[in-house]
Write a structure and sequence with these properties.
Helix content: 55-70%
Strand content: 15-25%
Number of strands: 9
Mean pLDDT: 78
Order of helices and strands: HEEEEEEEEHHHHEHHH
Oligomer: single chain
Radius of gyration: 56 Å
Length: 285
């Protein structure tokens, strides 16, 4: 009797264990009856199913990230660009996701990656390098999100966001671009230096011209002042001579004596009776 009771208890526990299942937070599930979907999008919590009749398959309902490696895309100018992007998506319809992707997240990532590449190729191909890099990046992202959502609507997934992490030129193209930029900067620098040298020469020539003009004007003014001074001096002498000719002659002789015998070693051989010594030869009156 005890053995039968134990068997019944074990059977009940086994059946009960197979009738109860749990959906964890961040999960969703699908209930099958002999392989046919009977219930989808199960909420987190405790659920019941018919043992041996129903089976359950659980899926990750959290946000998924598809981080693709950088790919080359041609712009409208036929130039290669390296675009590095990623997509955030989640399961929106469990039934569609199971029937279209067999519930395989890896397969969904592969299909989504191809759709993303096609959308990027289309958007980048309609724009120039400048447009892709700067002004149209947000527009590109919005259009890619819109196109991708339409393309994956039958997959039971929803594209939450698309981000373009990096847009760059390939390494070999970048080097040639940098070389051209460097050559252009060197050319501009050379032009600026030549313009500076030309401006310096003009400034130097103008300064030399002004210096010459200033010196010439100063010399002219000095000569004019000197001539006016000589004229005034001559006029003063003439007036003095006209007032007292004897004193003027005496004063001029004194100046001549002073200049002639300025040093003790000075020597002059002159006839004492000459006019030069006439004031020495005069007797006191």
């Amino acid at each position: 009797m005890k053995t039968v009771f134990s068997i019944l208890v074990a059977a009940l526990l086994f059946v009960g264990g197979n009738a109860i299942f749990t959906i964890q937070q961040g999960e969703t599930g699908v209930v099958f009856r002999f392989g046919e979907i009977v219930k989808t999008d199960l909420e987190p919590g405790l659920h019941f199913k018919m043992p041996f009749v129903n089976n359950v398959r659980k899926f990750d309902a959290r946000l998924q990230t598809l981080d693709s490696s950088a790919e080359r895309y041609l712009t409208s100018e036929k130039k290669n660009l390296l675009v590095d992007s990623f997509v955030e998506w989640k399961i929106s319809d469990t039934k569609k996701f199971y029937t279209s992707m067999n519930g395989d997240i890896r397969l969904a990532n592969m299909r989504l990656a191809q759709i993303m590449k096609d959308s990027l190729r289309s958007e980048v191909g309609n724009r120039t390098v400048q447009e892709v890099i700067s002004q149209d990046r947000n527009v590109i992202v919005d259009k890619i999100i819109e196109q991708t959502r339409v393309s994956v609507s039958d997959f039971g997934i929803d594209v939450i966001d698309v981000k373009v992490k990096r847009v760059d030129l390939p390494q070999n193209v970048s080097e040639s671009v940098y070389q051209r930029m460097e050559a252009e900067r060197n050319r501009v620098a050379k032009d600026l230096r030549s313009q500076g040298a030309e401006a310096a020469e003009r400034i130097r020539a103008d300064a030399d011209r002004q210096r010459t003009v200033i010196i010439a004007d100063a010399y002219r003014d000095a000569e004019i002042i000197r001539g006016e001074g000589d004229a005034q001096s001559a006029e003063i002498y003439a007036n003095a001579y006209s007032k007292d000719s004897d004193f003027y002659s005496f004063y001029q002789s004194l100046n001549a004596y002073q200049e002639s015998f300025n040093n003790k070693s000075d020597m002059m051989i002159v006839d004492p009776k000459s006019d030069f010594f006439k004031f020495f030869n005069q007797k006191n009156k």
